[in-house]
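Request: Have a read of the protein record below and say how the chain folds.
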Amino acid sequence: MMKFSELIKKDKIFYYEKLPTKDKYELLQMILENTLKDTKYTNKFDLIWNSLKEREQAMSTGIGGSLAIPHCTTDHVDEIIASLTLSKENIDFQSLDGSPVRIIVLLIISRNNFDAHIKALASVARTFQNTETKKSVLKAHSVEEIYKIIEKL
């Protein structure tokens, strides 16, 4: 079982008091850029972005209850790249339940590792099915606070 705390590193937690954009795709681009920063994949941004955008256009990854899990598999990474973004403002993510999103967990996964893909998605789902965990994250006001919640998971 994959622990959520193993998935999300402190430097890949992003917090917005005020969103830089209300456009879902612009925001996803910014999050992907920040997520790839300081990795060996920064030069693969366009290739990874195309996969992520294609996946999101096929079906919204806004799963409801304030949570979105934008994700894709790609040949351009050989591990799981993940980040967590918390916004104090609502984002229209065309969620399945029509509700806005405030927590975005981005997952970029190697295409030839289906097992890791399933385990990573399951870990995120498990983490945020816990109402207390979700409430704590939604109440957080800094990367530091979010990290303290996550490292216990």
Q: What stands out?
A: The first strand starts at residue 13 and ends at 16. Residues 21 and 27 are 6 Å apart (CA to CA).
